[in-house]
Amino acid sequence: MKFWPISLLLAVIACKSNVDIRDGVYPINQSIFENGKIISNITDKRLLETSGLEYSTKNPGHLWTHNDSQGQPSLYLIDTLGQVKLTVYLNGAENYDWEDITSDGEHLYIAEIGDNRAERESIKIFMLEEPKLETEDSIAINDWLEMELTYTNGARDAETLMYDFQTGELVIVSKRDESCYLYSFMFEAGESKSLEPKGQIQLRMFTAGDINESGEILLKNYNTIFYWSASNLSLKERFVKGPEYTIPYVVEPQGEAITFAPDNSFYTVSEFNEHSKQNVYHYQRKM
After folding, report:
1. In CATH, what is the architecture of 25-283?
2. Which end of the chain, N or C, is more open, meaning fewer C-beta atoms within 10 Å of its C-beta?
């Protein structure tokens, strides 16, 4: 009988599941946020696989979200009761694999970056001015912009798009690499750009992230939320160094969305529609 080293067995187990034993390296900090609480359920049949989440700047008390791959090229504005208040259809766009959404305070950026098999020749970012909820419950827009991207180190699956307020750049974090890559770039409408990795982190399976205006960072995988406090260091330096803490997390069936609120609390939502409902969680700020 052949005996395998314990370290190798643990690595094999981690690779075959969404669990990464390296998550446990970082201490849990229970002093920053309250435990997550379910504040609503999304039951609208138009939202079957909620994959991205962004707190609305122009519509306080509301969240932008969208479906995952093969869904309509639409954004949905929901209130904190989980009710869809506005549908925004992007005429001429395609939802091959929308994975995340972020904002610079004026514009929304949609991450058309999913690539489970790492085979896409290029990916895209869509940008549009954030719509304001008025009287209509559905609008179609034509004046959205797009940017095409490739990775210099080959095709990558990614599900995380963030906006770095320090530099004005968009940030992509890869998902399935054993040590995930960080990419950052300025949005340039109509351009095609090759992205070089800016650094790696000894963690994997990232499904969502957000940066607030203070510079705090939340990155999550299926089982853990990682936290970086505000800092004057560059995002690359902080990313490579690794998170300071993990946040107590109510593990969702398939949690692939997270967003800061203006009060620096945060929300998550599950992509998995269990019994026709998806829970919206709120993590209230303590300090």
Report:
1. 6 Propeller (2.120)
2. N
Q: Residues 159, 217, 26, 63: is their CA dihedral positive or negative? A: negative
Per-residue model confidence (pLDDT) at position 20 = 86
46 Cβ contact partners less than 8 Å away, ≥ 6 residues apart: 67, 72, 74, 76, 84, 87
The radius of gyration of the chain's CA atoms, rounded to the nearest angstrom, is 18
Tell me: pLDDT of 174 over 70.
yes
Domain map of the chain by residue range?
25-283
Cα 64 from Cα 50, distance rounded (Å): 10
Q: What does the alpha-carbon distance between residue 156 and residue 192 come to, in Å, rounded to a whole number?
A: 17
pLDDT in tens, 204-237: 999 999 999 999 999 999 999 999 999 999 999 9
What is the rounded distance in angstroms from the CA atom of residue 153 to the CA atom of residue 282? 37
pLDDT of residue 167: 98
> pLDDT tens-digit profile of 67-78?
998 789 999 999
